[in-house]
Amino acid sequence: MRKVFVYLLLLAGLISSASAASYTFGVYNVTDGSSFWISRQSANMTLDLSGSVEGEIAPIAVTPAGRVLSPYYSASSDLDANDVRLRERTAALEGTYSSEEAIYLRAWANSAVNRTYFKPAGSGVWTITLEENWPVRLNASRTVDYAGKMINDRDCAGNNGDSVGASFLYNTELSKERNVAMRLERLNATVIATNDTIISADVFATRSTVYDIDSHSTGIADLRYRQVDSRNNIINIGEERYSGTYDITRRVKMELVETNVTKKTDWLNCCIEGCSGLDPCDTMPWGGAGVFGCAC
To answer: Residue 237 sits in which domain range?
Structure first.
């Protein structure tokens, strides 16, 4: 992968050439060591998936001697296109189970990634911008109906820092209908810096997420969402837990739209906020042990 280095006084900028629709962009100040980096990956792709399953989770004899396999069902899915993500995990013991699912994913990565470096005459302030136009569309629907010994079912949708999801744990009866629609339009990054430090770094991913769920559960139901701003600060967060028998209906809609409005005093802010908070998509235990070994 070819890399291009650009030195701006005591400021160094780096962007790798796009290779297989991926790049890394960074600004590093050699005076105080402050830095900003972003890595992205996408592709031109389409996924259209649909299917259903219905049956009885039951023990089966697998040898003439009568060796019996314990009844068990598990399913998982992981999708990620330019940080538009969907994760699903289901594990169920003996019982009746049915499910229907449809997923449509479309991503484009044809456009070149553009960057600019600007410093007004007589000023010591640099403005470095990045423009990416790699849109993504992801629509997914899923229904689950189960009655039996126990089922655990998790899902999480993430969209460039925003996330929303639900976990149903230790349920003997579970029915749910979930629909999620995510859109990513473009990404713009702006870094303000001087010879001494990086003053601010903002990443605007113009995006929207809509998550609908309608459920009946008889165990534990966890619902959560998180929304971040252009500096990855959490601006909206919610967590709910229900233990018992519940009928739950929820809709979560989140959007972030770049308005290109800059206050004159913005560059005076000398604090770059780091990554704060935790993304449920990254912290949920997704392994087989995590599905049944849930800490409550």
So the answer is: 43-292
